[in-house]
Amino acid sequence: MTRERILDTREGGAVAITCPAESGISYLMRGASDPFHPWHGRAWWFWIIQFNRMIGRGVNAKAAYRYARMMMTGGCSRREAIEIIAERDCGHLGTAIEIVDIDDIPKDRTYRNAWRRSQNGGPIWIDEDHARMIDEMNMWSAYETT
Hints:
Mean pLDDT: 92
Low-confidence stretches: none
Order of helices and strands: EEHHHHEEEH
Strand order of the largest sheet: 2-1-3
Largest sheet: 3 strands, antiparallel
Structural class: alpha+beta
Number of helices: 5
């Protein structure tokens, strides 16, 4: 199981957590020459189609190129593969992208929607105003179901 998580800070300081798939990491490390790779056996220009699709979704051109190239050729380390995934999947959506171990993320998810982080990164903290709103919503939900 992948222990690495990708954190980034979205608008308003909200925390987004991305869990890279083990298969995706493996594909970037091995490349399309592996017979079990999803791009195996495709035409040489298939990466161009994928590159254009990523650009169409708003992915940075450099990140899209790096991802498509590694999917075709492979040869990167595990850490580099996770960095490539972080650039492609989070780079255009947030700031302060960090790769952290799962143990660095709070275990208690009660106030997950109240987690905040600086636009420059750093530790996760709980926004008290948002936490209070979550508690209030939970109390109203419990009241309405009784």
